[in-house]
Specification:
- The chain is of the alpha/beta class.
- The protein folds into two domains: about 5-135, Response regulator (Rossmann fold); about 150-210, Arc Repressor Mutant, subunit A.
- Helix content is about 50%, strand content about 15%.
- It is built from ten helices and six strands, in the order E-H-E-H-E-H-E-H-E-H-E-H-H-H-H-H.
- The chain has helices at about 10-20, 35-45, 65-75, 90-95, 110-120, 130-135, 150-160, 165-170, 175-190, 195-205, and strands at about 5-10, 30-35, 50-55, 80-85, 100-105, 125.
- A six-stranded parallel beta sheet has the order 2-1-3-4-5-6, sandwiched between helices.
- Helix 3 packs parallel to helix 4 and helix 8 crosses helix 9 (about 175-190).
- It starts with a strand and ends in a 13-residue tail after the last helix.
Length: about 220
């Protein structure tokens, strides 16, 4: 089944370049384009894409606000920040808003494809630069609720960069059950994205970032 992608960037040449490149992959379908954050939210509501490629520096509504709106309304739609900005505050705000990935615009083509397919599968992936920033900035949640043993298992595998299908296979449960556990984990940790949950596990020392598949 094709991965449905919405491209959001205020530069027409960037959108055109991404469309030309992504259309070459049979597993990906570009379902729409938006030039500002507000239009991105409206199109996401209408089209319900699997993945949104979101620039952060956008007119009308910035990419972080748009990401937050999309994630709040459409929890099954994943957002990848694709930007030229690597300031700590921008990286952290994007992930806090719910972005599953954070890539720089100089990311090479194969890695961008990998990130889109990983996001559609529920797999966290970050550029090494963004990951380094996030590990420094991430804070443990205030008064997190107790996780069950199975939720801890899922969190550990999620933080190792495994996709939903891989977690399901490892724990011998269904993908639907994995998604349910991830939802519960995010609620208990008071985070809005799988990325935040994964980084929380890294911060606690449950896993080591240097060994993880979440790094592109």
């Amino acid at each position: 089944m094709s991965i449905r992608v919405l491209v959001v960037d205020d530069h027409a040449v960037v959108r055109q370049g991404l469309r030309i490149f992504l259309d070459m992959d049979a597993d990906i379908t570009i379902v729409g384009e938006a030039a500002d954050g507000a239009a991105a939210v409206e199109l996401a509501r209408k089209l319900r894409p699997d993945v949104v490629l979101m620039d952060l520096l956008l007119p009308v509504m910035d990419g972080v606000t748009a990401t937050n709106s999309i994630r709040q309304e459409l929890p099954d739609t994943e957002v990848i920040a694709l930007t030229s900005v690597l300031e700590s505050a921008s990286v952290f705000r994007a992930v806090q808003a719910g972005a599953i990935g954070y890539l720089l615009k100089d990311t090479d083509a194969p890695r961008l494809l990998q990130a889109i397919k990983a996001a559609a599968a529920g797999q966290v992936q970050l550029s090494p630069e963004a990951a380094a920033v996030l590990v420094r900035e991430v804070r443990t949640p205030h008064n997190p609720q107790y996780l069950t043993e199975r939720e801890n298992d899922v969190l550990g595998l999620l933080a190792e960069g495994l996709a939903n299908k891989e977690i399901a296979h490892t724990l011998q449960i269904s993908e639907t059950t994995v998604k349910s556990h991830v939802k519960n984990i995010m609620q208990k940790l008071d985070v809005t994205s799988r990325t935040q949950a994964a980084l929380y596990a890294v911060r606690l020392g449950l896993v080591h970032l240097s060994n993880q598949k979440l790094l592109l």
